[in-house]
Amino acid sequence: MNEMAIKSKTYSASHVANFMLDRAAKEGRPITQMKLLKLVYIAYGWYFALIGRRLFSEPIYAWQHGPVVRSLYDEFKHYGNMPIDGRSIEYDLDKMKISTPRIPSEDKDAQLILDKVWNIYKGYSAWQLREKTHEKDTPWAAVYDEDCRNTQIPDELIGPHFNEKIDAYLDAATA
Fold it and tell me: Domain residues of the chain, as ranges?
């Protein structure tokens, strides 16, 4: 894949999920569906704030327990609160092909950002990540409506929120 193709590549949420699941497996850290959903959302936010474009095109919804990418929820809901031991897969019905999507190692920007997100948030429990997404002034808090499960969290809220979070993280690192 050439550099220009990498810079214009938008992944699916499955790519990001598999990145997190691979890191968890490599480090022997169990990862539940809730934790995976929050890590994918956080990775999306960091990428959007730093690169200025979407990491994947699927919408992120404000559900009761925080931000959710519906396709990942549907794919992994059978795990419940148990650790996930599989990977996200994609189906190409035209070619009758099943694949396990992964972000190519040549995409240094995505690899760097996702590594940073993993290293910062891997130690948090699923519930701690849920609480972080529920804090006052988060994109989730701005749009969540308990009577409407499918309210989309817009990028116009995600970008500025994660810019603030990254600035705070950098300020703390240099203090």
Answer: 3-168
